[in-house]
Amino acid sequence: MNLYYKSLRRNKVQTGVTSAQEMGYLEDESISTYLHQVEQRRLYDEKLKMLDTSCRDVLAMFFNKISMKEIARKLGTSEQYAKKKKFNCKSKLIDLIRQDAKYEELIN
Hints:
By secondary structure, the chain is mainly α. Helix content is 81%, strand content 0%. The protein contains six helices and no strands. The longest helix is centred in the first third of the chain and has 32 residues, at 17-48. Residues 13-17 have low confidence and may be disordered.
């Protein structure tokens, strides 16, 4: 957007109603995008709560960029088991999300 205004200033073109309308459109798009992201997050949170505590803990550590080695240490398991647990938990979460009717609305 800044490049647009620089171009107008350089060419000494006045911004008027048209640019105000464009800005309103951009704000509407931003709001729409934000609301869409909020709905996606709600669905994610809702389905995450359906997982057992150990899955939620493993995924939380993974999403917080804790290494698999550290996750395994905290679980008291091998790194290979921790990777398998994370994979299974993530797959279950994805399945729960995809089975929800809201999912189809949110991806379109």
